[in-house]
Specification:
This protein is mainly alpha-helical and 150 residues long. The protein contains 7 helices and 4 strands, in the order H-E-H-E-E-H-E-H-H-H-H. The protein has one domain. The model has no long low-confidence stretch (mean pLDDT 94).
């Protein structure tokens, strides 16, 4: 069993280990959904890094710093997928199963329709840069609401 705090880099490494090569945009959206559903299902964040409401949808700046300039990525050298505990793996696997088959643009479009990104972008013109953080409270409130429709 690995020890130490799980970071978004460990989550990114886990996603890529499970899915293989993907666009950096898709990796960003899958990391976002891992965080959102972890807040709902596990009642805690999967990783401590912030998520910001950029024009292209939710972005984890800590991931962006390592992949900027790249379109596709297949491994995440900074993370350790084995640091993720069983509960977080279950959540990540459910996210991968549901969102993983979707194209990156579809995932981006979906996040643009959802409340957490839209709320964080209030007052910012479409396509304009913005760095407002998407709060855990906003994600939890919105995604836990989706669960009740089942």
């Amino acid at each position: 069993m690995a020890t130490g705090k799980v970071t978004v880099h460990d989550v990114a490494a886990y996603i890529l280990k499970q899915c293989g090569s993907m666009t950096t945009m898709k990796l960003q959206k899958l990391a976002y959904y891992c965080q959102a559903w972890s807040l709902v299902w596990d009642e805690e964040p999967m990783f401590p890094e912030s998520i910001e409401a950029w024009a292209s949808g939710p972005v984890v700046p800590a991931l962006y710093e390592l992949h900027k300039g790249k379109f596709k990525i297949s491994v995440w050298p900074k993370g350790n997928p084995d640091k993720i505990n069983h509960e977080a793996k279950d959540t990540a696997n459910a996210v991968i199963k549901h969102y993983g088959p979707r194209p990156s643009q579809w995932l981006s479009d979906l996040t643009h329709m959802e409340e957490p990104w839209r709320k964080a972008r209030e007052g910012i013109a479409e396509g304009e840069r913005g760095y407002q953080e998407i709060s855990h409270a906003s994600m939890h409130e919105y995604y836990s609401g989706l669960c009740k429709h089942g």
